[in-house]
Design brief:
The chain has 399 residues and is mainly alpha-helical. It is built from 19 helices and two strands. The two termini are 28 Å apart.
Length: 399
């Protein structure tokens, strides 16, 4: 548990250069971004009302993360989250539990990352640029426009003025209809996203998510076209972190199980929705039907699943990607109670998987029976005939 938390914190530090408990909860799938938005919009009092998992376990995890960073001499500072939908923003609570609330409202940075006081720190132009950034984070477009007009007046050559103008204009376009989906998608992906990431950091989601949702609305009702995989709501909703929308959009497509891109998007959506069986079925179907694209499993957000995949890749002798689902099932016979039978799988599995599934089902039953029966011996012989290397791993794990 502690090592997993340390690993996740390290990953956030690598990606964002700082640590926020909010980011850990989002990364783990304990919190959906849409619920975070609802909290910022005042839909409920405390964010932990919609966080997945036991509050005390979450508190322990946040404290482990904080202790880990303090041990590395990172500095903690208290931050606040203000409501978005009010003329007089209110400070929001994460939890009624004072300790949990306080731990959530901490940001950790390296000492050298702290702002240095110099002759430019309090300059009006620097203050305005920071104010525009904060207004975009707070989704206050009118305030962002007011401050950027002042920046034009006092510092028309400011180094960030052009980038800030692009972002403010994008925010102002949110209420308008999309004229050219392909063109606006390219601009959002190739221009606005890198600008927002460089200026707003991890908080760029507060601007980018609504922009992607605007494109999702424009794409609503359009069928998936393999020649244009990004012009489908399952893509834009993925960028907007709207996982329930992604799942529904994929499942509404005819024969979506036969498209590698849709299988990947479906698996990625089901993981944060805590639909483990559905996610595994899509990953398995990807291995069976598109083994050349099975390295997409690296995108999984489930650490245990990723670790098993890496272990599988390091096997000697190697097994083909099509064997990964059966190999994974060898170490987890209890999954037969969660996964559908091979006959109800998304696509027809290889014969070795079907045999292994039966063996693992009987293996679970054998714990009650206490002995190997003739049917078990027959199935073992069949698996050995179908895939000798897979049988060897099964036999080793059964000892």
């Amino acid at each position: 548990m502690i090592q997993d938390t340390h690993h996740q914190v390290d990953q956030l530090l690598l990606e964002q250069g700082e640590y926020l408990p909010l980011e850990l909860l989002l990364q783990e799938g304990r919190l959906s971004y849409s619920d975070y938005e609802a909290w910022r919009n005042g839909k409920f009092d405390c964010l932990d009302e919609v966080v997945f998992g036991d509050p005390m376990q979450i508190l322990q995890q946040l404290q482990q993360a904080g202790a880990y960073l303090i041990q590395r001499d990172w500095l903690a500072e208290t931050i606040s989250y203000l409501s978005w939908n009010s003329d007089t923003p209110q400070t929001l609570r994460f939890s009624r539990n004072i300790t949990l609330n306080n731990d959530f409202h901490l940001r950790y940075r390296k000492p050298q990352d702290q702002p240095q006081l110099d002759m430019f720190t309090d300059a009006p132009a620097a203050n305005l640029a920071n104010g525009i950034r904060q207004a975009l984070v707070d989704r206050n477009t009118a305030e962002a426009r007011r401050q950027i007009e002042r920046l034009y007046d006092i510092a028309p050559n400011h180094i960030q003025l052009g980038a800030l103008e692009h972002l403010v204009e994008a925010a102002e376009r949110l209420p308008s209809a999309v004229d050219d989906i392909a063109s606006e998608m390219q601009t959002l992906r190739d221009t606005l996203t890198p600008l927002a990431e460089s200026i707003m950091g991890s908080q760029c989601r507060n601007l980018l998510v609504p922009l992607w949702r605007r494109l999702s609305e424009a794409l609503r009702g359009q069928s998936y076209q393999p020649a244009h995989p990004q012009q489908h709501i399952s893509y834009t909703a993925t960028q907007a972190i709207d996982w329930d929308v992604v799942q529904k959009a994929v499942e509404q497509e005819d024969a979506w199980q036969n498209e590698a891109v849709l299988l990947l998007r479906h698996a990625l959506a089901c993981e944060p929705l805590h639909q483990t069986a559905a996610a595994l079925q899509s990953w398995f179907a990807l291995c069976w039907q598109f083994p050349e694209q099975s390295d997409a499993i690296d995108c999984s957000t489930r650490q245990e699943f990723l670790q098993q995949w890496q272990t599988f890749l390091d096997l000697e002798p190697e097994l083909p990607p099509q064997s990964f689902p059966a190999w994974y099932l060898i170490g987890k016979p209890g999954l037969t109670k969660l996964l559908p039978t091979p006959g109800d799988a998304l696509i027809a599995p290889p014969a070795s998987y079907c045999t292994l599934y039966q063996l693992q089902t009987r293996q679970t039953d054998m714990q009650t029976r206490g002995k190997i029966e003739n049917d078990d011996i027959t199935l073992r012989a069949l698996l050995k005939q179908q895939d000798a290397e897979l049988f060897r791993y099964f036999l080793h794990n059964s000892q």
